[in-house]
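Thread: Modeling a multi-component assembly for a lab meeting

Hi all, long-time lurker, first post. My supervisor asked me to bring a structural picture of a complex we are working on to next week's group meeting, and I have zero experience with this. I have the sequence lines for every component (418 residues in total). Could someone generate the structure of the whole assembly? Inputs are pasted exactly as I received them:
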Amino acid sequence: MSTPLRLKELSKKEDLLTGGHRMCAGCGAPIAIRQVLLAADVPLVAANATGCLEVSTTIYPYTAWKIPWIHSAFENAAATISGVEAMYKALKKKGKIDRKIKFIAFGGDGGTYDIGLQSLSGAMERGHDMVYICYDNGAYMNTGIQRSSATPFGANTTTCPAGRVIHGKPQKRKNLTRIMAAHDIPYVAQTTPAHWRDLMTKVRKALEVDGPAFINILAPCNRGWRTPTNNAIELCRIAADTCFWPLYEYENGKLTVNYKPKEKKPVTDFLKTQGRFKHLFSPDSKDLLKQAQENTDHEWDKLLREAACWAEETGTTEEGK
Amino acid sequence: MKLKGWKELEIGAIIPEAGNAEQYNTGSWRASRPQWIEENCIQCLFCWIYCPDSSVTVKDSKRGEFDYGHCKGCGVCAHECPGKKGKKAIVMVEEGN
Ligand SMILES: Cc1ncc(C[n+]2csc(CCOP(=O)(O)OP(=O)(O)O)c2C)c(N)n1
Ligand code: SF4
Ligand code: SF4
Ligand code: SF4
Ligand SMILES: [Mg+2]
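Re: Modeling a multi-component assembly
Sure thing. I ran the full set together rather than chain by chain. Output:
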């Protein structure tokens, strides 16, 4: 039986990511990864794309991982773990292994939205029994805050620096979660570590399906976001409350929005907490803030409309109950 | 940990000892230190689930002391701690005082 999703019960489990890793103080990624590992009640084998998580949890000769874990390169975590999964299936067929094992890949937004996208897309299309987890901190943080296709509109990074010519990133974010949903795989979801029960429920669903699953997790980076070290969780909450980062899931293609803020906060509530958006609050940047709000509204409205269609079709309420 | 010479290294940079980062001290990174005030604690364990460094110890579902060998002093636990009647059960104090 799986561990009930209550902190008192979960705290009896062994932490599979130890302290002593070298991610920055207050980094959101290890919070998310600890929760992912705690959610699983089956043995896991993981691959990790290059990035802060991979580099800082395995500085030789140390590793913070208590599960079998492999790093090969930046662009191919999904290909690596799909190979391991294929080998497992072959060994199982030959009767050389009988344990149930699940396979998981971790990648940052650079490693997932950008350079690893084709290996991820391929692994999903081939239908491997694996879960891919993207921790999205909105830039290539490990190499010094370069923009990625996940970087939000207007964010200041070292490769789209806010100044007289451009005002941070001129383009909007790529919506990777929906691209993964378009692969028509059994499970796709988006969540944050502030919503730990939502995150863990989604990890369990992803592990339960027989086939590929994808989860996108918001993971604040205080170095890149220009924030204090103590508020990664609060930022995740604000991201959901402003609908900058909606919580939703696709189960066999059916969309459910898991969290609808009682009062949708303006996206400026999210932007103003972070130094990377500071320039957007200068008097001559009103248009940019308007654009940021429109981008958020557009994505949110699209989600709601699609979820409403599904609810109508399946005769459920929009919450999927 | 004594560093190995190249002849003793495992092929493929394998690290055979799972979770040996526990032997590495990151507590020395701290600029401020979380302090637990037990009488204000409601045992919600939010500090435990939100710590990036697995540095809140819990035994039999009850929180214990901080693991100061690994805690980096980020302050996430103190920020998230609801405490009792508006009084935090975790406060951050400057290190070295
Ligand atoms: C093929 C290749 N190109 C570039 C690099 C350098 N590199 C290492 S980590 C990294 C950034 C990773 O960004 P992301 O995936 O978003 O993870 P984060 O560091 O932000 O957690 C880059 C560019 C590399 N290791 N391999
Ligand atoms: S640079 Fe950002 S993502 Fe990387 S370890 Fe530091 S806080 Fe975390
Ligand atoms: S200060 Fe940060 S690292 Fe230390 S126990 Fe609190 S959350 Fe964990
Ligand atoms: S968050 Fe605060 S109240 Fe909750 S268990 Fe930790 S110290 Fe106690
Ligand atoms: Mg990144």
